[in-house]
Design goal:
This protein is an alpha+beta fold. Helix content is about 40%, strand content about 15%.
């Protein structure tokens, strides 16, 4: 009995232990589940808070950095104070002295007081007890401050006498800049003196525009008139619709275009006159792609500017793929280190996608990306190009570049891309451009820095002088040449000629003036242009768009009429003056054609300006080096060829000057025949003495061995250098000397 009871108790204990174990397991499971549930709930609630906290920390860090940069920019200017006695014992006293002085001066000029935090550092220049004088600099404000009184009243504190040492505030400046002299008033037309003294950065304005058509010169005249109101230096053009390939130089710009089908497509460039000399080459790839290689100021590497006109979305896939393949091939073959690709891409980029941050910025127009937009992004990714339109924040109404004919749809389809975005300071859309197109101009600002002492180029041959200006030139020249015999008595021929040439050119420059701008359009045309300009700048509506379209047609018709009237007046004026129209044709032909490309000896076309010059030089060197049969001629037996050549007479020089043709291009010295004719009485005796010295010494000035060679196209293949006729533009003084110096001329042979 006891044994049975014992076994029963053991079984009960075993069951109780099993129940306890199961209960413990269940409790652990429930605890784990509850813990996981609570933890996940807490994490779910806390995650947004943590992320927000991290975001706020980043923003605080960014704001601190920006605040530091702004304070650094505000404190970066130097202020040099003069006349402060050195009574301070420590830097704190020096700081108080400077603050009191600045606030005293500011109170006199009604300026806001300076705070201590605005001054980063204060110290004295030079060693203690030094008496060295330093240049006086006009104090500049530490931060932008506007006086409370009228802006027209400028307060300029008078500097005191120089102290033993100078006190500076701001960034250390051990060598303050020297005071620069003001430039000549003529120089001010080209350079801002204030910016120039500070060696300030300036920009080159590079723009692109779809003009819809420049098929006629009337359209081109309308475009150039509209460009007067905006800033631009290089303008890429799409849809020019001209056939062929030409480079035309006008008075204010250089015009290049490339077209293959009359009335369709076509691309090109307009280059402002101050950059014409920097052009390296134009390469016309097709009627949708053109390349400009140009050397911009202070950039060692050449800039390649690619202007394009892309197929529309409706074009077939093969055409679109070939277009982008041609762009990639052009970039590989012809472009340089610095690259710009711009034009009408007919593409919508939409918003930036992951992985596109290097090519597309956050400031885009619209969210939809088209097929052409996808191709554009791939082009940018493949060539490391950044779309500048998306880099700078602008208002939405200043982003779109194309509007549908009815004004319903607006898109951003014109872009400027570059592989050097750090060199650019801005990219924007020109909102109010007075030209007949439904595209808006896209313009980017490229940062450059001007040279310290540029000299503006002056071409005296491009200015039509008045009779009063000629009188002033002759008067100035007469004053300079009074002491010619005394000043040049012991000079060699070369030095005498230099003296004469410098005297003439300096007399011309003393009376130079701005080139008079001719009135291109009538008052009626200008009124129509002004009316359209006001409509473009106002709020769009259907009635205004219809009126703009009507005005554009009237403007085109009026410009055509004005140009015709101007041509007739020019022809009539020259017929009355000379009885012919040869000079009228020369005046109306107001452009010079450049050679687009020539073939070298190996049959390869070269388009770089340097290569074209080299090919032409080598061709004519080889041509003149060839042996030719000598022509024999018999001299008049009455002429004694062994006798001495008689001296040149003054009346011969006067006759030579009088018989020189007018309206002829001068040589490298820029001295035209009109100057020689007007100053005949002053120059004739001087030229007589000079020409006789040349005959005696048998040496000529170095300037007479140089000339400008102009190549004129005759006929045949334009890419063959042999189809061009060279013309030398030599010094007119040399031409004058050649007439009386011919020993066997009719007049001189009679004196033998």
């Amino acid at each position: 009995m006891e044994q049975q009871l014992q076994r029963f108790l053991e079984k009960m204990d075993e069951k109780i232990n099993n129940v306890k174990d199961q209960f413990s397991i269940q409790v652990e499971d429930l605890t784990q589940k509850f813990t996981n549930s609570v933890t996940s709930t807490i994490e779910e609630k806390l995650t947004p808070l943590v992320e927000e906290n991290l975001k706020l920390k980043k923003e605080v860090t960014t704001l601190k950095r920006k605040t530091y940069e702004l304070e650094r920019v505000v404190r970066k200017n130097n202020v040099i104070l003069h006349g402060l006695e050195e009574t301070e014992e420590n830097n704190t006293q020096l700081m108080e002295l400077v603050l009191n002085t600045l606030n005293e001066v500011g109170s006199n000029g009604k300026m806001e007081n300076f705070d201590k935090w605005e001054i980063s550092e204060v110290y004295r220049l030079g060693k203690r007890g030094s008496m060295k004088r330093r240049p006086i600099l006009q104090p500049t404000s530490l931060s932008p401050r506007k006086p409370e009184h009228n802006k027209q009243q400028n307060y300029t504190p008078k500097p005191n006498t120089l102290p033993s040492r100078l006190v500076t505030v701001g960034v250390r400046d051990y060598h303050p800049p020297k005071q620069e002299n003001s430039y000549h008033s003529y120089h001010n037309q080209f350079i801002d003196d204030d910016n120039y003294k500070d060696n300030a950065l300036t920009t080159v304005q590079i723009a692109s525009l779809n003009v819809l058509t420049l098929k006629t010169d009337d359209n081109l005249a309308e475009l150039t008139n509209a460009l007067r109101d905006i800033k631009w230096d290089i303008l890429g053009l799409s849809e020019i619709r001209r056939d062929g390939e030409e480079i035309l130089q006008r008075s204010d710009y250089l015009f290049y275009y490339k077209g293959e089908i009359p009335g369709r497509n076509g691309v090109g460039f307009l280059i402002k006159k101050h950059l014409i000399a920097n052009v390296e080459e134009f390469i016309g790839i097709s009627d949708r792609i053109a390349l400009l290689n140009i050397k911009l100021p202070l950039y060692k590497d050449i800039w390649s500017v690619l202007q394009i006109y892309a197929p529309t979305e409706k074009a077939d896939q093969e055409t679109a793929n070939k277009f982008y393949d041609d762009i990639n091939e052009t970039i590989i073959k012809y472009t340089h280190k610095n690259l710009i690709v711009m034009g009408d891409f007919n593409a919508q980029t939409g918003e930036c996608q992951p992985g596109e941050e290097t090519v597309l910025g956050p400031h885009t127009y619209g969210t939809k990306r088209s097929k052409n937009g996808e191709k554009l992004i791939n082009l940018a990714l493949g060539n490391n190009l950044t779309i500048l339109n998306s880099k700078y924040k602008k208002k939405t109404k200043r982003k779109w570049t194309w509007v549908s004919p009815g004004g319903t749809y607006k898109n951003e389809i014109d872009f400027i891309l570059t592989n050097k975005p750090k060199y650019f300071t801005d990219a924007n859309v020109v909102n109010r451009f007075n030209f007949n197109t439904n595209h808006r101009m896209v313009r980017a600002e490229l940062r450059i820095q001007k040279h310290k002492n540029p000299r503006p180029k002056y071409n005296p041959t491009k200015i039509k002088r008045t009779s009063q200006q000629y009188e002033d030139i002759v008067s100035n020249l007469a004053k300079k040449c009074v002491n010619y015999m005394k000043d040049t008595n012991k000079m060699e021929v070369q030095d005498k000629y230099n003296w004469i040439e410098n005297s003439i050119t300096s007399a011309i420059k003393t009376v130079r003036e701005k080139e008079q701008k001719t009135k291109k359009f009538s008052s009626k045309t200008m009124n129509l242009l002004e009316e359209r300009k006001e409509l473009i700048s106002s709020i769009n509506s259907d009635s205004k768009r219809r009126r703009i379209s009507e005005l554009s047609k009237e403007i085109n018709h009026s410009i055509r009429k004005d140009r015709k009237q101007s041509r007739m007046e020019t022809i009539e004026r020259h017929i009355i003056a000379s009885g012919g129209i040869k000079k009228a044709h020369k005046e109306l032909l107001n452009s010079k054609r450049w050679i687009t490309k020539v073939r070298d000896a190996g049959g390869i076309n070269k388009s770089r300006r340097v290569d074209i010059k080299t090919i032409a030089t080598n061709y004519y060197k080889e041509l003149y080096r060839q042996e030719h049969s000598e022509l024999e001629c018999e001299l008049d037996p009455a002429v004694d060829t062994d006798s001495d050549i008689p001296c040149v007479l003054q009346r011969e020089v006067e006759k030579a000057i009088e018989t020189q043709s007018s309206d002829k291009a001068p040589g490298p010295d820029g001295i035209d025949n009109e100057i020689l004719t007007k100053a005949k009485e002053v120059l004739a005796p001087i030229f007589t003495s000079l020409f006789n010295d040349i005959l005696k010494t048998e040496s000529i000035p170095e300037q007479w061995t140089k000339s400008h060679i102009i190549l004129l196209y005759k006929k045949g293949d334009k890419h063959n250098i042999g189809n061009y006729r060279p013309i030398n533009l030599m010094s007119n003084i040399y031409k004058t000397s050649a007439k009386p110096s011919t020993p066997y001329s009719t007049e001189r042979s009679g004196r033998h």
